[in-house]
Fold each of these.
Amino acid sequence: MKAHEIYAAVDPAIVTQMLDWFRANDRNVYKTAVATLAGNRKLRPVYIQKKTLPEQYAWIHKTLKINACETVGEHLMQAYLMAGQQSLLGMFCDGMGIPHDGKGSVVGDLPKKLDPERLAETIDRLLGLFEPKLLTLYLHCFNLQVPGGWPDLTDKINTDSRLTLA
């Protein structure tokens, strides 16, 4: 699944959570995202900034569903997860035995293959600790890190009924 497809499928509450986090913790990323997305749509950023916050969020979410905004959407997702959900990333890496910096950033190369049993155990444990839609967003984003994704992770996302974006 590509970033624009993820945004098309994700619960709007997750996007609101992400945008709220940026507004509270890294307002420059929020402003840059609005400016970039507005530019992609041939609009001036002030047009978006004059909207109410719920209208801004709805417009951003709608715009991130467009294939032309793929790169911005993927970067926003990654930035949010890397900065705003470090414990989730770290626990996933620990569970999978992937070396990381303590904050979820992988050290060295990503694994070529994921152990399906370890993956299932890690996901089961994380589902008990994190909101399932957030975990699912992370798994989709993690799967974007290698061309075509990891087959075992793709299969788990597609077959585990607990892992839904909406």
Amino acid sequence: MVKRLVRHIGNLSGLGVLDVGCGEGKNATYLAEGGALVRAIDVSELALANARLAWKNVTRITWEQADIRTTQFPDETYDIVVAYGLAHCLLSPQEIKLIFTKLQRATKMGGYHAICSFNSRAQDLSAHPGLIPCLVPHEFYLELYSHWSILEATDNDLEEVHPHNNIKHTHSLTRILARKPGS
């Protein structure tokens, strides 16, 4: 998804990126290696420790442990916002809407969002004991971006096998690439 976003943008040199729910940093690293300046935020200190270890030679990333729900961002600061796997970890549709409104405000005019989230169409959570995701319809996400230019939007299934338990399962995923109106 992030690679497709880069195809839309082209040169990343000097662009400011906010990667929220960055996990172990694959997207942050890819963008930083392309020349972007990345602020990578995750609530999990363990995930960030793994990211710092795995990507210790990558510059242009600031790793930050924070809860997106209480973190404030100045308006129109970032050229790109990535929220990969964040939304379904929030507590309610209202919280998703509040967070994404905050992220949209933090995005510069003409800036981009890349989002990916489980949606409510079909989830096999057998490989994720204890996970209770917030599942909303694909259309809910499209509505969040109804005033943006949607470059790509898909509602497809992802089949995977987790290495820690070898359980094959499927998730329905919303993926959206969108551009904020303006310059």
